[in-house]
Amino acid sequence: MSVVVGVIAALVMILLLARGIYDEVAGKKRLKEKLKDSFGKKSERSLSPEEFECLTHFHKNNLKYRQGCQIIDDITWNDLDMNEVFLSMDTTLSQTGEEVLYDTLRRPVKDAVEIKKRDEIITFFSENEKERLAYQICFAKMGRLGKISVSDYLNDLDGVSGDNNFRHIFCIILAVAALAAVFARPVIGFPVFFVVLIYNVATYFRRKGDIEPYIVSFAYITRLIRSSRELVKIKCESTREYTERIDVLTNGLRGLNINTFILFSGRGMTGGFLDMVLDYLRIFFHLDLIKFNIMLAIVRDKRDDIRELFELTGMLDASICIASYRKSIDHFCVPDHCEGIKVEAKRLYHPLLQNPVPSDVHTEKGIIVTGSNASGKSTFLKSVALGCLMSQTIATVAAESFAAPMFDIYSSMSIKDSIMTGESYYMAEIKALKRILDRAESSDAPMICFIDEVLRGTNTIERIAASSQILRSLSRSNVLLFAATHDYELTYMLEDYFENYHFSEEVRENDIDFSYVLKEGRAQSKNAILLLRLLGYDDRITDAAQKAAGVFQKENRWEKL
Fold first, then answer.
1. Single pTM value for the model
2. Which CATH number fits domain 336-509+517-524: 3.30.457.10, 2.60.200.20, 3.40.50.300, 3.40.50.720?
3. How far, in whole angstroms, is CA 560 from its chain's centroid?
4. CB 333 within 8 A of CB 290
């Protein structure tokens, strides 16, 4: 009978093992098919404000380690709608990839060799599906933490209160002694056991409350190390420089992956019976606190290696993401980083637009763009700025061809006032412009800047007088300016310093048709009053406005109402 029971038990174990293997293989197959199908498609991810803020922390926390490199400041980032651009391309599968992609977009480099290296890896993943899928499966195993940033906890490790394992070992000795007393002399043993239990539980939760957030980040670090070990096994010549360094780093971090089940498995009381038992053992014997202290010492000592491993794996995941992004947009080019202060682009467009109208750009002098409302001026400036940024970060520009030097990139385009600080629109605008002027004065390195409706927050006479001087001061040998304006006077005042381009429209009986085609020369048409009429404003308002504008153009004065 016992033999039969043993055979049945063995068969059950074999069936469970076989089912586990089958589920793992089937799950991996489904994941591969999903990854194949999603490659080259626009990202459909949406993030809460808290989640988006969290993914920026790797970039912010590492600024102190990156002295001397250019950072895209918040004004320029927001002007270019970079949060939306980031989300449109973010098909990364891991937290490392997501945070490194964001960090990469905010740190343009000035090293053509580095950009070439990035392009080679991106191209490799574009052309080699088998290796790409193998890497993606590893990144999927890493996963994400959502509203927790590992870099925050790495930076805050010094703030974790000191603790050693002697008192926890003492708790183990007490627990063992109490259990022994229960079996030896129950009358005395049970009271002793309950006293030890209360003491061990109280000291356990006092410490556990301090370290709980760090346990989550430590769990991610162990997944990072395990998945990185699997990456190393994928032999690819194109990524060898990365994987060799990853191999060295993970070998030095092996101590973090020993007996981690004590700290991470079966957490909470909602798992299976064995998980629940393990939870009770942790509490009574302080097992996870002891393991945490061992891991804490290693992480503190190896945190620079962990940061480097985070960045290396993140760059590989981000490279696959960019390979997919290249396939998802209308057309792209790998940029040419040329000498001289100029921008040359063919069929340049903005990748967020559904049906973009490409533009050709060739200037060594800088450009002032005019045109009526909604004609495409701001979008054009953003397209050029985005092209420069992408050329120095992800080696991928939404254009047929793009050539520019390694610029410092600044803008003043979508400035807002602030109720919280009491800062007016005009004050915010002149501060944004001042930082551009200060940069132009302080460095001879190439700079490209984008200004939309300079000094729009003040009166016409002072705006034209001041903005003409500001723009003229940016006509320097090391600065390339792109500006958009409604003040046509500026196109005449500054025609010796900048080239004039414009956007125009075709006016019909009840409509305006915008071509969004960039043309040489200054704009001649105005449509602000016409747009009021097309939107249903009372004819008395629009007719009177048109008449008043005509009088001003002829007599240079406004009639009293």
1. 0.86
2. 3.40.50.300
3. 54
4. no
